[in-house]
Design a protein that fits this description.
Blueprint lengths: L4 H15 L18 H13 L5 H13 L29 H14 L6 H15 L32 H9 L5 H8 L6 E3 L4 H5 L16 H7 L9 E3 L11 H8 L5 H5 L4 H11 L3 H4 L3 H12 L21
Antiparallel strand pairs: 1-2
Helix pairs in contact: 2-4, 2-5, 3-5, 4-5, 7-12, 7-14, 10-12
């Protein structure tokens, strides 16, 4: 078959549609003329809020991920529309940060009414949160519009802590993300905490007879069972990164390699041939000299994630408040 330029362009367009990514209208500095102070306001509010809540960087990063994985990055998780609200889905259990986004939105609306979307605020807030945790600084393409649908039934396929790596790879692939992005975005667990609720099966019922996950390092197991005792408080929170819970770095990849992963899904990254190879590429002895840059690759992954099923142009709306449709 002879591929003409037109056929190649058509094929690329079809791939873009298949992956659920429509980013043609997103660009860095989208609001430079219509609301030039928007990004400054986001950064100021997020920075101020983090002073009273040191876990805020992880909270806002997680909010961005959960927003993008349901209906695309369109702010649907922010909406309060009764019992069916997407935010009440089990897959969003523990997601927070809504009031911070609403605070940012109020200030942005005062400066530039009806211009900046809640979806963009979520993406920008996550960027600033990562920077506050000493992570990489990066530019966020903006121009997203807010979705008009928010329903908890749409979140039934969120990645889950009990998912196998094959299931996770499939869920990521459905969003146009590959094994490399799975590893990189999972590494965002380098900051933040998880509840003992999500550890119960891994510690006390992973194998027949109530045995724990054998991939847990024997040195680490008593530490986990002490912090999350059987029949203890399932709401107790523990760091997802044993060594640097408030520092955005690649330590969690070392943890995964050495059996110190907290979450079952993180540990599973080292049980799969493809994802193990990716983990090793960032933590190998020769990585500082010849290996890929975790920071730059993470930025590429989160920017790509931020383009999943975005609404642009005449699709969607610009909400006046993030918790309600116009």
């Amino acid at each position: 078959m002879v591929w003409t330029k037109a056929k190649v362009n058509l094929a690329l367009s079809l791939v873009t549609v298949f992956l659920g990514i429509s980013a043609a209208d997103l660009k860095v500095g989208f609001y430079s003329n219509t609301c030039p102070q928007a990004e400054t306001i986001v950064k100021r509010v997020v920075s101020g809020a983090s002073l009273s809540d040191p876990n805020l960087p992880a909270i806002l990063l997680r909010l961005h991920f959960h927003d993008c994985f349901v209906e695309g990055c369109d702010g649907s998780i922010l909406v309060d529309n009764g019992e069916i609200s997407e935010k009440f889905a089990f897959g969003h259990e523990g997601v927070r940060g809504f009031e911070i986004i609403e605070s940012v939105k109020a200030e942005v609306e005062a400066a530039c009414p009806g211009v900046v979307s809640c979806a963009d605020i979520v993406a920008l807030a996550a960027r600033d949160a990562i920077s506050l945790a000493n992570g990489p600084a990066y530019e966020v393409p903006t121009g997203r519009r807010d979705g008009r649908v928010s329903n908890m039934s749409l979140a039934k396929d969120m990645p889950d802590v009990s998912d196998s790596i094959e299931i996770l790879k499939d869920k990521f692939m459905q969003k146009g993300l590959h094994a490399k992005e799975l590893v990189l975005l999972s590494a965002a667990h380098t900051i933040g905490t998880t509840a003992c609720f999500f550890m119960t099966k891994r510690l006390y019922n992973f194998l027949p007879g109530g045995q724990p996950d054998p991939t847990i390092n024997p040195v680490f197991l008593p530490e986990l069972t002490t912090r999350c005792p059987q029949n203890g408080d399932i709401n107790t929170r523990i760091p997802m990164d044993r060594f640097s819970e408030r520092l955005f770095d690649k330590q969690i990849l070392h943890n995964i390699k050495d059996g110190f992963a907290v979450l079952q899904t993180d540990a599973g990254l080292y049980e799969d041939v493809a994802t193990r190879k990716i983990v090793n590429s960032y933590v190998g002895l020769l990585n500082p000299l010849f290996g890929p840059s975790f920071e730059s690759d993470f930025v590429k992954a989160i920017v790509k994630m931020g383009k999943i099923n975005v609404k642009t142009g005449s699709n969607g709306e610009i909400r006046r408040v993030c918790s309600a449709f116009n």
